[in-house]
């Protein structure tokens, strides 16, 4: 009997290109001696020895990385790795990082080579795969990452703190606290017979000792977290992060094979590696004294973003980092404006709208902003605010945050209003309910204060929310106008049909995907009692206030992350190739795994739209 | 007498020492049976399917599927495993020769099955029908391994959650449609690899046996 006689194996081989194109005899030859293996998430496979042969993923997902750790490709069910080890001797030292638990078919090297020689199409497929990956490799190396910030596949031992601070279970709380203070650490490992038996953190000292009035003479054995979660030093940062978020802990002891502690990994260690460059950039921004200098510093900005994308920072974190940088830049420009034109004659707020307010900007976002003045200005005062607005918006533009094509900027006198003026505008928008007016105004409903006192802005938001609550027609109109854009569900069918024709399909991930989720989140967000501005926070709040089922909310949040991840990756690629960002994606550059996710993502948006339709626009046909 | 006891003791000792090494040092024979029912006393084995695991990998070439001669097929179970009286007549192997073959195969290997007591029960029954040497079988049960894991984690598993398909789903293994002995043997072998990969460190055979296995003696027909 042979592998080919097992129905489930044959069925899979027969439905997976290029294997499906082989004759039964060739399939049989290829399957001779095939082995099935299983690998866990986070495992690293060096393609040497037994592994230096062709592998087919039966189920799972992996990354192909260069010896230096650069990402070459992401692959999943029905895709192969190990091609380079058979065609050549794996000159780039490619290795595999397992992303999801995976089941592999491992083929015999000589059988594969024989079938390659006999079948031209089959051989062509693999040489093409090989060329494709080499192209991707050279592209990712060309990215020239300044410092390879934290990569998920970095081993823990490169990141952890090695200086160990330990105590025994018999030590008193007092003694341990003294040791911790002296060593300036926020946790202490409890060790007995050279084995890790517990951990005590600052938080434990607060909650388990001080809060309950426990004496400082009690031993650590009584208050420590017994048998804490730990990892071996050869595990990867990715696994540490997963474990820490699963257990909701900030301190992870690292042990050797004998379970003796060798180091400590804290959330701060992870952050330090991840956020080194953005923090540096923000510090630099604060020290610049002219627009020209700011422009110079901001030239690093796109490269920084590209680096962060390449290090797999989650999209929502990346959005926050970019927002923090834009906010700092804006505030520095406001200070420079004061130096140039004098102190302001009255307190005011600098407001941002749209993506900067939602904290989901990316490369090439434009600016949307306005001023809120504490009273009606005199002619001179109005001239002052016109001057500083001109200075700030122009400065932002020179630093790479483009002017708003719709003229929603502080330079436009229409958007330099008093608190009463802003309230009136919002009430106007809510009451008019004319779809065209709403479409233009929707961006104002995403509002955040970047400079000045927060309270007056909160008061405007409260007034706006109250008005919204009174007007169900407004909600219906907002919903209907948002639902005129549908996700491109039929896209994939067309893509499959016309991939060989002349029509080059390009998809706009921002307007055909992300914007739709942002619209949905705004509709729900405005119906919530508590105002939130970022898309994910709005969805979460809506689910908490029971306006949206937690399933749909979670799916939409995941879809948003997924689309944002793809958009950022597309921008990174485009930026590296052409020097400017584009949110368009060519589906032929997506892996089957990404395509599969994308398709599911659009279906989720569709589902969210029907839910919104049901809740807010029913009966308003 | 003393000599043979001593030899038995030293064999046992040797075995124990070996069982305390990495699981990969052993060859596993993952077995599934199709039977006419669950009770070895009144039901019969229709077919056997198995696949070997060596050096931590499933050898697909080792897969075998054998239909046993003489089994009467209940029309109701035909729907499940698709083996008919006609198949038994045409493909059925002589029970005695199949058992001798099985004995050679199992010897020195670790037998693995999902819910092993059933397979062991039928093996015992089959052994008792033939005059041949007794055989000690070291075995693992993927269902017992799963139950131990759930108990350790304090996880509550719903009714039906220990069925082969449900266990596989928890490890992200693909859904298999067929339920013939061969497909289920392969499915069980993949489940075993996944269960082992999910242990914090590569286990020894002894550790696996403690979590879900044992040693059973198959006694032949007394002569």
Walk me through this protein's architecture.
The complex is a heterodimer of chains A (621) and B (223). Chain A is α+β, with helices and mostly antiparallel strands. Chain A has 4 domains: 3-142, Jelly Rolls (Sandwich), CATH 2.60.120; 156-265, CBS-domain (Roll), CATH 3.10.580.10; 288-418, Beta Polymerase, domain 2 (2-Layer Sandwich); 476-616, Four Helix Bundle (Hemerythrin (Met), subunit A). Chain A contains 24 helices and 19 strands. In chain A, the strands form 5 sheets. In chain A, strands 1, 2, 3, 4, 5 and 6 form a 6-stranded antiparallel β-sheet that branches. In chain A, helix 15 (379-398) links the parallel strand 15 and strand 16 (416-418). In chain A, helix 4 (109-118) packs across helix 5, helix 21 runs parallel beside helix 24 (592-616) and helix 22 runs antiparallel to helix 23 (550-578). The longest helix of chain A is centred in the last third of the chain and has 29 residues, at 550-578. Chain A is globular, with a radius of gyration of 29 Å. Mean pLDDT of chain A is 83; it is low at 143-150 and 494-503. Chain B has 223 residues and is an alpha/beta fold. Helices cover 45% and strands 21% of the residues of chain B. Chain B is built from 9 helices and 6 strands; from the N terminus they run H-E-E-E-H-H-H-E-H-E-H-H-H-H-E. Chain B has a 6-stranded mixed β-sheet with strand order 3-2-1-4-5-6, with helices on both faces. The two termini of chain B are 21 Å apart. The model of chain B has no long low-confidence stretch (mean pLDDT 84). The chains are: A alpha+beta (621), B alpha/beta (223). The A-B interface holds A 1-3, 5-9, 31-40, 58-60, 100-101, 103, 106, 257 and B 56-61, 63-65, 171-174, 176-178, 180, 182-183, 186, 189-190, 193-194, 197-198, 201. Strand 1 (35-39) of chain A pairs antiparallel with strand 3 of chain B, so a sheet runs across the interface.
